[in-house]
């Protein structure tokens, strides 16, 4: 029996609840102001000249009226008190949201700090651990012999406990901070350094024609079809061959167009310093982690222009692994000169994107296999925000590669989501109607290449 | 910067999850032979098989076959699955097969399979016997 998927963020997430609390606070404020205004107006009635004149004729009645009016306005349950209650409630709600958000931030920072400190302390603790292991080996020779004879399956171990990767990535900076020269530079400075190690060059884009494959020949009708297109392109692009992406041009019955871009992951794990024509390489991973506008992102923008997309046409970016990172970074840059498109949606599959700041006008759906270690490479959970839904499912195949696979892990999970009634998933599907109700589609393929920048 | 260095180290580890160039060459020979076997059929116009075993496309084969006008895509898709199952490509888990009529692009057979899936494995073993490699 597979574990059920957990869904965080989006329309049903905590941040959406915070938004609801803010809305309630605003409504309470409005109500408090209205009640206060009515109360003020009614107080004026007490001094009304007609009432004062009638008091001379019927003082008892006037006194009863005035008393009743003041009780209704200023009594324990009167309008003035109610206005104060609603005003106080608005203040309390805002304070509660501020506290919750501050607590979330502190917890995230605390986790980072604990991991960093663990890494920092590791060299001190290591001799003790080694001595303990040696003692164990001497006193338990049978256990050691069994370990040597039947060593643990490291891949199974890691995929069963992918949080280990968070700990390693989080502790690693503390661990290596003992080394001279690595302890002072922040991430932006590191991006410059990495850019020197992996020169990003500039891009060229070649139109590789229309793909007639039946997998992308019909307009996508759900999240499963969206990820199917991504798997289709990801399975066809090999390492050592040019990077390719798909731009699915979807035409609605009214003739309007939307664009879905399928961006595969890393295919070239190249070493530093040399020029690499393949844009889907390790260098692009590092540029995106450093927050750079990568050459691959610029090439995707060029491909979109060639496919006919203008700056106001709706664009959805779908990426696996590195493809998701580039998609999220492009969403961050959307509207700027680097990526002047109307990115409305991003779908990531197995991508470490938790530290990329995607703006609130972009709807993000992140799919993460609980046993896939790759989304853990940034040692950060995805933010629980109203515009960012994260679906965590369990699809254990026992190897790092299969657990990260679009074909056997992410595509089946995406198909499952098509039947989901979760409010966050439903809201995402509804918001993506442009892309999921097209009349026709044309899948255009583009070859992206890196060329050396002019010196 | 520290985080980037750690990720760089991890990336080197992850890069080792894929096939070596020698293994890739060996597998390319196998897929070329399968493509030749498919294109030798009268009903097949073209066949392309991409096998990959790297972190981002692990143990996967993607097959695209176009068939001649009027040909039935289904027996061709059956043949592709048979060729893959009985091949010595290893490891092999994710399989995607697209077969379509090159002239009208309306008749097609698409199959997405996991060779590790217990039910799929059982069906294929019953029909084609066990895989020649584990």
Quick tags:
heterodimer; A: alpha/beta; Rossmann fold; 16 helices; 9 strands; B: 134 residues; alpha+beta; GMP Synthetase, Chain A, domain 3; 4-stranded mixed sheet
Describe, in short, the structure shown.
The complex is a heterodimer of chains A (455) and B (134). Chain A has 455 residues and is an alpha/beta fold. Helix content of chain A is 52%, strand content 15%.
Describe this structure in words.
Chain A has a 9-stranded mixed β-sheet. Chain A contains 16 helices and 9 strands. With 455 residues, chain A is of the alpha/beta class. Chain A folds into 2 domains: 13-106; 195-451, Rossmann fold, CATH 3.40.50. In chain A, helix 1 (14-46) runs antiparallel to helix 4 (79-139) and helix 8 (187-197) packs antiparallel against helix 10 (282-289). The longest helix of chain A has 61 residues, at 79-139. In chain A, strand 5, helix 12 (322-333) and strand 6 (342-349) form a beta-alpha-beta unit. Chain A is globular and about 105 Å long. Chain A has helices at residues 14-46, 49-57, 59-74, 79-139, 141-149, 154-160, 163-176, 187-197, 223-236, 282-289, 295-306, 322-333, 400-403, 406-417, 423-431, 433-436; strands at 6-9, 202-210, 243-251, 257-263, 314-320, 342-349, 363-369, 388-393, 440-451. With 134 residues, chain B is of the alpha+beta class. Chain B has a single domain (20-128), classed as ANL, C-terminal domain (GMP Synthetase, Chain A, domain 3), CATH 3.30.300.30. Chain B contains 4 helices and 4 strands. Chain B has helices spanning 2-15, 21-39, 73-85, 118-128; strands spanning 44-54, 57-67, 94-101, 108-114. In chain B, a hairpin with a 2-residue loop joins strand 1 and strand 2 (57-67). The longest helix of chain B has 19 residues, at 21-39. Chain B starts with a helix and ends in a 6-residue tail after the last helix. Classes of the chains: A alpha/beta (455), B alpha+beta (134). At the A-B interface, helix 7, helix 8, helix 9, helix 10 and helix 13 of A face helix 1, strand 1, strand 2, strand 3 and strand 4 of B.
């Amino acid at each position: 029996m597979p574990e059920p998927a957990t869904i965080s963020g989006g329309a049903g997430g905590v941040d959406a609840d915070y938004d609801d609390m803010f809305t309630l606070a605003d409504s309470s404020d409005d109500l408090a102001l209205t009640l206060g205004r009515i109360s003020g107006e009614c107080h004026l009635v007490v001094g009304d000249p007609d009432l004062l004149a009638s008091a001379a004729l019927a003082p008892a009645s006037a006194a009863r009226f005035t008393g009743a009016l003041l009780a209704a306005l200023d009594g324990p349950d009167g309008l003035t008190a109610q206005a104060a209650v609603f005003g106080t409630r608005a203040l309390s709600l805002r304070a509660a949201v501020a506290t919750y958000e501050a607590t979330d931030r502190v917890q995230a920072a605390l986790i980072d700090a604990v991991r960093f400190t663990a890494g920092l302390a590791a060299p001190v603790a290591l001799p003790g651990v080694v001595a303990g292991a040696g003692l164990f080996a001497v006193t338990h020779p049978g256990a050691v012999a069994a370990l040597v004879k039947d060593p643990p399956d490291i891949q199974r171990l890691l995929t069963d406990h992918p949080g280990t990767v968070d700990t390693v990535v989080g502790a690693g900076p503390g661990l290596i901070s003992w080394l001279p020269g690595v302890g002072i530079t922040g991430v932006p400075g590191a991006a410059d350094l990495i850019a020197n190690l992996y020169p990003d060059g500039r891009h060229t884009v070649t139109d590789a024609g229309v793909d007639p494959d039946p997998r992308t020949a019909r307009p996508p009708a759900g999240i499963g079809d969206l990820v199917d297109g991504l798997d289709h392109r990801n399975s066809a692009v090999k390492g050592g061959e040019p990077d390719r992406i798909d731009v699915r041009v979807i035409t609605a019955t009214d003739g309007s167009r939307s664009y879905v871009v399928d961006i595969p992951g890393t295919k070239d794990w190249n070493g530093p310093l040399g020029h690499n024509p393949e844009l889907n390489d390790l260098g692009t991973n590092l540029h995106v982690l450093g927050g750079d506008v990568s050459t691959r992102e610029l090439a995707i923008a060029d491909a979109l222009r060639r496919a006919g997309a203008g700056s106001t046409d709706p664009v959805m970016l779908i990426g696996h692994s590195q493809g998701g990172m580039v998609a999220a970074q492009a969403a961050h840059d959307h509207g700027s000169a680097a990526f002047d498109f109307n990115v409305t949606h991003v779908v990531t599959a197995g991508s470490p994107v938790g530290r990329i700041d995607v703006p609130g006008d972009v709807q993000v759906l992140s799919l993460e296999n609980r046993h896939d270690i790759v989304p853990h490479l940034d040692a950060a959970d995805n933010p629980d925000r109203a515009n960012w839904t994260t679906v965590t499912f369990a699809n254990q195949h026992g190897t790092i590669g299969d657990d990260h696979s679009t074909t056997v892990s992410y595509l089946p999970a995406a198909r499952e989501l098509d039947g989901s009634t979760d409010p966050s998933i439903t809201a995402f599907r509804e918001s993506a109607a442009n892309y999921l109700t097209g009349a026709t589609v044309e899948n255009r393929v583009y070859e992206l290449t890196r060329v050396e920048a002019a010196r | 910067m520290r985080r980037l260095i750690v990720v760089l180290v991890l990336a080197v580890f992850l890069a080792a999850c894929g096939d070596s160039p020698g293994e890739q060459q060996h597998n390319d020979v196998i897929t070329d032979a399968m493509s030749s076997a498919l294109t030798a059929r009268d009903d097949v116009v073209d066949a392309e098989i991409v096998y990959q075993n790297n972190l981002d496309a692990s143990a996967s084969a993607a097959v695209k076959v176009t068939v001649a006008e009027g040909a039935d895509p289904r027996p061709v898709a059956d043949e592709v699955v048979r060729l893959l199952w009985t091949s010595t490509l290893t490891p092999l888990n994710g399989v995607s097969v697209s077969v379509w009529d090159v002239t009208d692009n309306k008749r097609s057979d698409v199959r997405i399979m996991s060779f590790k899936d217990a039910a799929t494995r059982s069906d294929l073993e019953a029909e084609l016997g066990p895989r020649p490699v584990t």
